[in-house]
Specification:
Blueprint lengths: L1 E3 L8 H12 L6 E3 L7 H6 L2 E5 L3 H17 L4 E5 L7 H6 L4 E5 L1 H10 L9 E2 L21 E4 L5 E4 L22
Parallel strand pairs: 1-2, 1-3, 3-4, 4-5, 5-6
Antiparallel strand pairs: 7-8
Helix pairs in contact: 1-5
């Protein structure tokens, strides 16, 4: 199970990108966007690996109480924190019961971890250049449940809006940017 808590109103790329890699490797998984849907506790009880996508500080803080709830429902599940803010919050996450921390280009690490959690010895932060397949969105709410452009010139018509993640960091040093502390 891959779970997101906050992606600023957008469908989480941090779920659909690793889902493409994992499904291509033959794994079945459930995607849950807790910002727009209820977490299916029956699926939580059955999950062997549960990953929390942590692309920013807000998502990390929102995940903390969910980690405790999920741990109570399924104490046998192995928990994974992944994304931009997972490595810098590793000690905090481990204190909550998260076993693995994945950062950087985490999709390939997800495939290795899912193949054999007992044998996984990854470093946690991968800088490997990956060939990204088309994101796998199956199982997430439809796009019109997410942020939309409201066009006042057309009577308030809602137009589905989207984005794509072009990188996981940059070379600029903008002081307002959340990438800088990472």
């Amino acid at each position: 199970m891959l779970l997101a808590t906050y992606e600023m109103g957008r469908q989480p790329f941090g779920l659909v990108s690793p889902a493409a890699f994992l499904r291509a490797a033959g794994h079945s998984l459930r995607l849950v966007d807790a910002s727009v849907e209820t977490i299916p506790m029956a699926a939580v009880r059955e999950a062997e690996l549960i990953g929390f996508h942590l692309p920013m500080h807000t998502a990390t803080r929102l995940a903390a109480p969910l980690i405790g709830r999920i741990r109570a429902v399924n104490p046998a599940a192995e928990l994974v924190g992944y994304g931009l803010y997972a490595p810098i919050n590793a000690a905090f996450l481990r204190g909550l019961g998260v076993r693995w921390i994945l950062g950087g280009e985490y999709e390939g690490e997800w495939v290795k971890l899912a193949a054999d959690p007992a044998a996984y010895e990854g470093s946690g932060v991968s800088l490997e250049r990956l060939a990204f397949p088309t994101p796998e969105r199956t199982g997430l709410p439809v796009l019109n449940r997410y942020a939309a452009l409201v066009r006042p010139d057309c009577g308030g018509e809602r137009v589905v809006a989207g984005y794509t993640e072009a990188s996981r960091g940059c070379l600029h040093r903008c002081r307002h940017c959340p990438v800088m502390p990472v």
